[in-house]
Specification:
This protein is of the alpha+beta class. The chain has nine helices and 13 strands. The longest helix has 26 residues. The radius of gyration is 23 Å and the shape is globular.
């Protein structure tokens, strides 16, 4: 976002309401980044929106989505992208935040951090219901495709000061274990031809563009060199997935890589020195912790006309059996490549590289082929002039681009900012002692 040309209105969206960084406080909407970089981060289109202060982020985004739906011209198509803050961690001094109205619905969760996370999830869940109702009330639901998905595995067991849950999968967010790379989600639409089922077709995040483009009636052949492939037939009709492999990552700086081909997954290296390579069960999983059944009953079920949930959820629950004694030690990815059969062993208990050397060699070849096409990373060090303190403690773009793409700084330091923006008496970062 170093220039405004990298913000949503310059990337195809007609409107934007939200923040520019990767997280924010749920109430005061400030965001901390590197040490000493902190500021307010909430905008309506290109304008800073101070009216959001003291209003819960999940509710704000829900209200905005409903407003977009209500005022939309029903004779035109609508693409609504709602990237909720929930259940991401907020700032480090108050990472998990939920209003009491949501916390009251998860009193059965005794663990404090998991209860806070649960409250955030309740708010997210209710948001989905409110938005679906708005589509129904505007006679748009029957012609809608609703996709609910994650962008990565959860930060479990205190990672990033969060208490998500990937169990029984291995690892957390920002690892190449299944707990870090496997995304869960659902599609709801009356346009689906084969409904009420669990989809296990392989899909990569880059496939969403051609998939939704085809679902909306577009000709995928007209897309210019898309990274993904359309899975609309696979998802709608339960046809085989056209995707048979995916590259999870190659990072020569962190010395990590992982590749999936069919049922096989190859991985090398680890993040955080391997300190987040384990299996993290949530702190409260006994039968007494089960949520009351009324929490799963919603007026929305009448709108969606969903069938009664099956008594056995085995189709959607991953079960890997007992963990072998050597599960934590049989893969040493900093020494040699590890190989897992993800269909049979989604929990990555058993490294079978030694018994399948030909498969390891094949996948190493694929990694080398991918790496040969790698573009050198364009990461740059932090630019001191991006610090919000130079812009009234507001996160903003700090450069411009001319017609030739040449970069120029908008302002040369704090002295060029109007005096009204320098008045910080009404807006100060909270001290630890004030929390």
């Amino acid at each position: 976002m170093f220039t405004k040309e990298y913000t949503p209105l310059y990337r195809g969206f007609d409107t934007h309401y939200g923040y520019l960084l990767g997280h924010q406080d749920y109430y005061d909407h400030t965001a901390e980044s590197a040490a000493g970089y902190w500021g307010y981060d909430m905008r309506r289109n290109l304008t800073v929106d101070r009216s959001a202060t003291n209003h819960y982020a999940t509710d704000l985004f829900t209200d905005e989505a409903v407003s977009v739906i209500n005022r939309h011209d029903k004779n035109k198509p609508l693409f609504l992208y709602l990237a909720h803050l929930a259940t991401h961690s907020a700032n480090s001094y108050s990472p998990l935040q939920a209003p009491q109205k949501y916390l009251d619905k998860v009193k059965h969760i005794k663990h404090e951090k998991r209860r806070q996370f649960g409250g955030m999830a309740v708010g997210l869940d209710e948001s989905v219901g409110v938005i679906v109702k708005a589509l129904h009330d505007n006679n748009m639901l029957d012609n809608s495709i609703i996709v609910f998905s994650t962008d990565n595995g959860g930060p479990a067991s205190g990672f990033d000061l969060n208490y998500a849950n990937n169990f029984p999968l291995r690892g957390v967010k920002d690892t190449l274990w299944e707990g870090g790379v496997r995304g869960v989600g659902f599609i709801w639409s009356r346009l689906l031809k084969n409904m009420h089922r669990v989809s296990n077709q392989m899909m990569h995040i880059t496939d969403w563009l051609p998939t939704l483009y085809e679902a909306a009636g577009g000709d995928v052949k007209k897309l210019i060199k898309p990274d993904g492939v359309s899975l609309w037939s696979a998802l709608s009709e339960d046809a085989p997935s056209p995707r048979t492999e995916m590259l999870h990552n190659i990072d020569d700086v962190r010395h990590i890589a992982a590749l999936r081909s069919g049922d096989w997954k190859l991985r090398l290296g680890h993040t955080y020195g391997g300190n987040w390579d384990s299996w993290y069960a949530p702190p409260q999983v006994d039968d007494d912790s089960a949520a009351p059944l009324h929490l799963f009953r919603s007026p929305l079920s009448k709108i969606l006309a969903q069938p009664t949930p099956p008594p056995n959820w085995s189709d959607v629950v991953i079960s890997c059996g007992p963990k072998p004694a050597n599960a934590s030690s049989n893969c040493q990815p900093t020494r040699t490549a590890c190989l897992f059969n993800i269909r049979d062993d989604p929990c990555e208990f058993n490294n079978v590289a030694a018994s399948h050397p030909d498969k390891v060699q094949e996948l190493m070849g694929w990694l080398a082929a991918y790496n040969a096409t790698q573009v050198k990373p364009a990461n740059k060090p932090i630019d001191p002039k991006s610090n919000p303190k130079y812009y009234g403690y507001v996160w903003t773009w700090w450069k411009t681009l001319d017609e030739d793409g040449k970069e120029s700084y908008i302002q040369e330091g704090f002295n060029s900012i109007p005096a009204s923006s320098k008045n910080m008496n009404k807006f100060q970062k909270p001290k630890t002692s004030d929390l």
